[in-house]
Amino acid sequence: MHKNFFTLPDLFRQLGLPADGAAIDHFIAQHQGICKQHTWVAAPLWNESQRQFLQEAIAQDSDWAIVAEKFTSQLGQ
Question: Is 70 part of a structural domain of the chain?
Fold first, then answer.
């Protein structure tokens, strides 16, 4: 079975966010620590469609789950 391996820029594009390195770094710096206060999916930084995508990706252990978990760890620091 072939699995896709998505990158952080891929995840940002999928969420409709700017996906260049500077934008990703800024987003992470701006929201760092949010996962200490909220579950990642419940964090107030997502709109409803983003939240739904993230919930489904994680619940279904989709190909997006690996990059989503990496992103979660960066937001939780």
Answer: yes
